[in-house]
Write a structure and sequence with these properties.
By secondary structure, this protein is mainly α. It has 8 helices and no strands.
Length: about 190
């Protein structure tokens, strides 16, 4: 295959990745902007609507809704609904703690049962040996546990506006940095294509 023939495929893949990022980050950005202008309750309501729109867009643009955004989206609806219904912002602040704790528990539980749940979710994307899947799953489980604890510390010690900024401008970059830091593990445990 010539170099020119691969460029359109690379451009399409890059475009798809940027669209996925926009779909995932878009609701958070909307949450941040509306919270800054109208407060946490308006921000939460718009966050819920934007999350539903992002899940629908993901389904139509990519043909499916990934498991993690689906679970997170369901929690946004539940905890956002409780926040608005009870007029208590503690619920939306607890959502990241609960979601990250659920992900950590699921990954740790899968490992204890002898299965890598990341392999189930990402087995078509990455080709890793069993040791690689185990290590990757363990690292992500610890990272999700760290995020749950970090969210608890932050929302309990800072103002609501600062917590919203932290959620948008700290959690996403931390997650991206952590994901990028796993490239070495992915390469070291990659199964060569046949």
């Amino acid at each position: 295959m010539t170099e020119e023939a691969t460029k359109p495929d690379e451009a399409s893949a890059t475009r798809a990745q940027l669209l996925k990022l926009a779909v995932e980050v878009g609701p958070l950005v909307v949450f941040f902007v509306v919270n800054a202008r109208a407060g946490i309750f308006w921000g939460t309501g718009v966050f819920m609507v934007a999350t539903i729109a992002a899940l629908i867009a993901s389904r139509f643009m990519f043909g499916r809704v990934p498991v993690m955004p689906l679970i997170s989206g369901a929690c946004v609806i539940v905890f956002g609904g409780l926040t608005l219904w009870l007029q208590d912002d503690h619920f939306i602040k607890l959502k990241p703690t609960i979601v990250n704790a659920l992900f950590a528990a699921a990954l740790f539980g899968g490992l204890l049962a002898g299965h890598s749940l990341l392999k189930v979710v990402f087995g078509e994307v990455f080709r890793l040996n069993e040791d690689g899947w185990r290590k990757l799953t363990l690292r992500w489980a610890f990272f999700f546990a760290f995020l749950a604890i970090l969210n608890e510390v932050v929302w309990r010690t800072v103002s609501t506006d600062t917590w919203v900024s932290f959620k948008v401008f700290a959690i996403m970059p931390l997650t991206m940095i952590f994901a990028l830091s796993q490239i070495g593990l992915l390469r070291a445990h990659e199964i060569p294509a046949d």
